[in-house]
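Batch manifest, entry 17 of 40.
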Amino acid sequence: MEIDPTGFNFETLDWNAAFPELPPGVASAWDEINYSHSDEQPVHERETFDEDEESIDSSDGDKDEVISQISERMGSLQVADDGEFRYFGATSNLNLLDEAIQQNNFETDPIRSRGSKREDNARLSHHVDAALITHLISLYFAWQDPTFHVVDRKMYEEKQKLYESGTDDSTFYSETLTHSMCAFGALYETRRHPHLPTPLSEFFSAKAKLWLEVELDSPRVATIQALVIMSSYEAASTRDARGWLYSGMSMRLSLDLGLHTDMAPYVQNGQMSSEEAQIRGVTFWGSFIVDQ
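Output type: structure tokens
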């Protein structure tokens, strides 16, 4: 019980009897005041009102529509002359075009021919049996891919067959990707291969780095997937600086190829299949996770 220094007991005081001239209801209001002798003024709670949920949902929907319209004006995907999608922002003005963009490449040789020449010059053109490559890639998908899933095996194998037959050069296959997966698979290989340099994983890693230098002139989705794998491989080899470098490169190329954008409009107008759009999304998030 709180006693005032003047002798009044404010908690038991009958305000109606002490101040009969007060209007009805005022005395009861005094009872609810937390009396204090400090200099602070009584704090009155503000009345809160529940907003109409339907109006909130409607407002959010309008905001989403505005954001979507602004995003479309800020950037879009365009097909470059190498057949790859590129993301162009508003400052380039190229996002307003509806036709393929012509770019000037200072090298005109196909990627595979330039890569083969570099392999010969680097003395890395050892013959590798197709069965061994298939085995190492299977080891990669069995032991490493579940940790950081970034490659769709079905799509990869389909495009690999077309690439080897010379009938297609797809964005979902590259030599860099193949060699990077073989490098990781070689870490789990128990058999020896005397006709190939040792350690086997470093041999394939060197080939992946060589082909990466060639592919960076015209990167593709498979290049980004390879960079994610190479980043993990370098980290596992205690070369952290190079590992972070590759993960950062994969993230930057993901933005360059527009993997971060909504693919639904491009699927609807027939520019890509729903499966391709899904793989692009998986590649982006795989790159994002590894880079964190």
